[in-house]
């Protein structure tokens, strides 16, 4: 499904792309070289308000039973002040610091010290040492792909503790949720600040850095393309996948354990949220090698947008459905639950098969079958900044003939299923589908702006062949 994107970054011109393993011109790669007033205003807005948004959602559940409107109305009408709400907010505790430090350290050790062995015995899984896409400086980084292994080891230990070891309560994450939020914020800001200083003083590759002259933009969008320590510790890959996404399913399990503790049962809605989101998480790690060629790795620089976003935005807002169900347990009727499960699985199927079709087409250079037929494609050409002419193909068969971003359609179907599992009493669990719709529509428009500039008339031919972005006949 959609890569674990954080608050939607401002539109920043016309980033390049990877085609046939060749680097696009440096000036069109990734984030902007110069900052217009709108981008700067967007950056400052996100830096100021994104942390407050996360706090507001978590606080609303803790103090107002997940009502988003009550705290705002109470503040506006003067019934309470923000100081009153803040005074009731649990502070950071030494226990939370110990839990979070142990968690991050454990994930670093799994990432750095345990080479992947899953690919040696799991059929069709691609792991171990893999190459990423070529960077603007012409570097091809190597990665130790072992996310699936880290997820499996972490969860085996979690279940072993729950059944046999009893080192800690399965509700430990929920019981320390807000103190853990403060710890995650500290790590997010520390990492973001470190990589900015590193970009100025000791970058991994100076040719893969971008400077705008504006502190706020550099801090948020990042300076270095692939900041690294040593040969293997890649900040972008580690923080995009670990610790946030490995934690996602553990957080949901802790919420389920808390529901069991409070009410004596785990509702079918909580089971649905755990199962459907676990499918997404496992899909991410199963396809981690494929992820090395996605926009997050191939175009985004590493700054606050990814550093803080992966530490805070992702684990604390992508798990709102499970958190909500702790405060409002929902037992769905069997037909309704089966309908939600069907929607989620259908969305995942569309998402996965759509991406598989494009990957198959690229790997075989079109010498394959899609839906039992030879695939059709629009032949494209473009000229890079060095004057060289390149050729590419845009697939118009299979799901890619239904809509230009039909993988996002499947992603949105899955996202909607998570939210529908929570019933219709509160707005809070529906934040995810609202956010994902805005994010993916913005990404559609950003990608198409880049492609229109890159391919020109050939892109017009492609959009004529596939006229809709997400929903045939509508958009």
Automatic annotation (TrEMBL):
What's a Gene Ontology MF term here? cholesterol-5,6-oxide hydrolase activity
What membrane topology is given? Multi-pass membrane protein
Q: Which Gene3D superfamilies match?
A: 1.20.120.1630
TM helices/strands, residue ranges: 37-58, 97-114, 180-201, 302-327, 334-351, 415-441
Kindly state which reaction or reactions the protein catalyses: cholesterol + NADP(+) = 7-dehydrocholesterol + NADPH + H(+); 7-dehydrodesmosterol + NADPH + H(+) = desmosterol + NADP(+); 5,6beta-epoxy-5beta-cholestan-3beta-ol + H2O = 5alpha-cholestane-3beta,5,6beta-triol; 5,6alpha-epoxy-5alpha-cholestan-3beta-ol + H2O = 5alpha-cholestane-3beta,5,6beta-triol
Q: For this protein, what is the EC number?
A: 1.3.1.21
**GO biological processes:** brassinosteroid biosynthetic process; cholesterol biosynthetic process via lathosterol; positive regulation of ferroptosis
Q: Where in the cell is it found?
A: Endoplasmic reticulum membrane
* Family matches, as InterPro entries: ERG24_DHCR-like (IPR001171), Sterol_reductase_CS (IPR018083)
Record pathway:
Steroid biosynthesis; cholesterol biosynthesis
Name the keywords, alphabetized: Cholesterol biosynthesis, Cholesterol metabolism, Endoplasmic reticulum, Lipid biosynthesis, Lipid metabolism, Membrane, NADP, Oxidoreductase, Steroid biosynthesis, Steroid metabolism, Sterol biosynthesis, Sterol metabolism, Transmembrane, Transmembrane helix
Instruction: Give positions of region: Disordered.
Output: 1-25
- One Gene Ontology cellular component annotation? endoplasmic reticulum membrane
Q: What does this protein do?
A: Catalyzes the last step of the cholesterol synthesis pathway, which transforms cholesta-5,7-dien-3beta-ol (7-dehydrocholesterol,7-DHC) into cholesterol by reducing the C7-C8 double bond of its sterol core. Can also metabolize cholesta-5,7,24-trien-3beta-ol (7-dehydrodemosterol, 7-DHD) to desmosterol, which is then metabolized by the Delta(24)-sterol reductase (DHCR24) to cholesterol. Component of the microsomal antiestrogen binding site (AEBS), a multiproteic complex at the ER membrane that consists of an association between cholestenol Delta-isomerase/EBP and DHCR7. This complex is responsible for cholesterol-5,6-epoxide hydrolase (ChEH) activity, which consists in the hydration of cholesterol-5,6-epoxides (5,6-EC) into cholestane-3beta,5alpha,6beta-triol (CT). The precise role of each component of this complex has not been described yet.
- Known partners and oligomeric status: Interacts with DHCR24; this interaction regulates DHCR7 activity. Interacts with TMEM147.
Report the sequence similarity comment from the record.
Answer: Belongs to the ERG4/ERG24 family.
Q: What is the protein name given in its UniProt record?
A: 7-dehydrocholesterol reductase
User: Whose protein is this, by species?
Assistant: Cavia porcellus (Guinea pig)
């Amino acid at each position: 499904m959609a890569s674990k994107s954080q608050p939607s970054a401002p539109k920043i011109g016309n980033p390049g792309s990877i085609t046939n393993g060749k680097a696009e011109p440096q000036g069109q790669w990734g984030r902007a070289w110069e900052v217009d007033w709108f981008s700067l205003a967007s950056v400052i807005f996100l830096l100021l308000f994104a942390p407050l948004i996360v706090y507001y959602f978590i606080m609303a559940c803790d103090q107002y039973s997940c009502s988003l409107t009550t705290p705002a109305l109470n503040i506006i009408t003067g019934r309470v002040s923000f100081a009153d709400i803040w005074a009731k907010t649990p502070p950071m505790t030494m226990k939370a610091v110990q839990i979070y430090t142990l968690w991050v350290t454990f994930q670093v050790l799994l990432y750095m010290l345990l080479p992947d062995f899953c690919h040696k015995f799991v059929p069709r899984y691609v792991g171990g040492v893999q190459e990423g896409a070529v960077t603007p400086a012409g570097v091809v980084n190597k990665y130790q792909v072992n996310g699936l292994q880290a997820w499996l080891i972490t969860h085996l230990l979690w279940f072993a503790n729950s059944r046999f070891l009893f080192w800690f309560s399965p509700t430990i994450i929920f019981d320390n949720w807000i103190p853990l939020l403060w710890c995650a914020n500290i790590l997010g800001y520390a990492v973001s600040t470190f990589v900015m200083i590193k970009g100025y003083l000791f970058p991994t590759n100076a040719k893969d850095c971008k400077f705008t002259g504006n502190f706020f933009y550099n801090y948020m969008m990042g300076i270095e393309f692939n900041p690294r320590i040593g040969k293997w510790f890649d900040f972008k890959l580690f923080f995009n996948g670990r610790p946030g996404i490995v934690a996602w399913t553990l957080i949901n399990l802790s919420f389920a354990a808390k529901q069991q503790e409070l009410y004596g049962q785990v509702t079918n809605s909580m089971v649905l949220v755990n199962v459907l989101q676990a499918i997404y998480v496992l899909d991410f790690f199963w396809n981690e090698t494929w992820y090395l060629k996605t926009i997050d790795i191939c175009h985004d620089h590493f700054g606050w947008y990814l550093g803080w976003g992966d530490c805070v935005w992702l684990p604390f807002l992508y798990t709102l459905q499970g958190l909500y169900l702790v405060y409002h347990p929902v037992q769905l009727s069997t037909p309704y639950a089966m309908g939600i499960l069907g929607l989620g699985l259908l969305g995942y199927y569309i998402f996965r098969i759509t991406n598989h079709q494009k990957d198959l087409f690229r790997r075989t250079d079109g010498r394959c079958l899609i839906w039992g037929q030879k695939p059709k494609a629009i032949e494209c050409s473009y000229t890079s900044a060095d004057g060289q002419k390149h050729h590419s193909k845009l697939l118009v068969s299979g799901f890619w003939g239904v809509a230009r971003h039909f993988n996002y359609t499947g992603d949105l179907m899955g996202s909607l299923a998570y939210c529908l599992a929570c019933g219709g009493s509160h707005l809070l669990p529906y934040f995810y589908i609202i956010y994902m719709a805005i994010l993916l529509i913005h990404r559609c428009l950003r990608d198409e702006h880049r492609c229109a500039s890159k391919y020109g008339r050939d892109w017009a031919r492609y959009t004529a062949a596939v006229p809709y972005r997400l929903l045939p006949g509508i958009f």
